[in-house]
Write a structure and sequence with these properties.
Layout lengths: L20 H33 L12 H26 L3 H29 L7 H32 L9 H26 L2
Helix pairs in contact: 1-4, 1-5, 2-3, 2-5, 3-4, 4-5
Length: 199
C-alpha cells in the first residue's frame, strides 16, 4: 500500500524553505549595474589620465567642493545601517521597527538627492562645454538614477511588508532591497573617491 496519507502519530512534515527567486534576480541585476559603473569609471580614469599626460587641466581646483560629497557619503553610510536594521527587524517579526527603518531609509535617499542637486548648482558645469563635465554628469546622474530605483524598490517592499507578506519565515523581499541598496552605496563610495576626491 502506498503511503498517500500522513500518519497523525508522526511529527508534521518539515516546512520547506521558500524559493529565493527575487533575491537571486536582484543579485544578477546588481551585478549588471556594477559592471556598467565599472565601465564608466574605467573610461573616466582613462580620459583623465590622457588629459593630464598631455598637460591639460582636467577639472579646475575648487570647482567641486568636498563638503556636499562628504555629507552624501556620511548619509549613505548611515542608511546602510538603517536598511540592515529593517531586514533584522522583519526577520524577528518586529514590524514597528521594520517600518520605522524603511521610512528612515527613504528619507536618507531623499536627502542625498537634495544634496546632489545642490552640488550640481554649486559646480556650475555646462554639460556640453568640456569632457570632464560630461563625465561627471553622466556618472553622477547614473548613480542618481540608481538611487531612485533603489528607493522605489525599498518603497515597494515596504508596502508589501505593510500588507503582511514578509515575516521571519519569508524576508527575501527586504533582503533583496537591502542588497540593491548596499550596492548603491558601494557605487557611491567609488564615485566619491574617483570624482570628488581625486577629481
Amino acid at each position: 500500500m502506498a503511503a498517500t496519507t500522513h500518519d497523525p502519530a508522526l511529527a508534521p512534515p518539515p516546512v520547506l524553505p521558500r524559493p529565493r527567486t527575487l533575491f537571486v534576480g536582484t543579485a544578477f541585476a546588481t551585478g549588471a549595474v556594477i559592471m556598467f559603473f565599472a565601465g564608466l569609471f574605467g573610461l573616466y580614469v582613462q580620459e583623465r589620465h590622457d588629459a593630464i599626460a598631455s598637460g591639460e587641466t582636467w577639472i579646475k581646483t575648487g570647482t567641486i567642493s568636498l563638503v556636499p560629497g562628504g555629507m552624501m557619503m556620511l548619509t549613505l553610510a548611515m542608511s546602510v545601517v538603517i536598511m540592515q536594521w529593517a531586514v533584522y527587524a522583519i526577520a524577528r517579526d518586529d514590524r514597528p521597527h521594520a517600518y520605522l527603518a524603511l521610512g528612515l531609509t527613504g528619507l536618507f535617499g531623499v536627502s542625498v538627492i537634495t544634496q546632489t542637486v545642490y552640488l550640481y548648482k554649486q559646480m556650475g558645469f555646462v554639460i556640453d562645454e568640456t569632457v570632464p563635465a560630461l563625465f561627471v554628469y553622466v556618472i553622477t546622474g547614473a548613480h542618481l538614477f540608481m538611487l531612485v530605483v533603489a528607493m522605489i524598490f525599498v518603497g515597494l517592499m515596504a508596502f508589501r511588508a505593510l500588507a503582511g507578506q514578509f515575516s521571519s519565515r519569508q524576508a527575501d523581499g527586504l533582503a533583496s532591497a537591502a542588497l540593491f541598496w548596499h550596492a548603491t552605496v558601494a557605487v557611491y563610495a567609488v564615485v566619491y573617491y574617483v570624482i570628488y576626491i581625486t577629481k
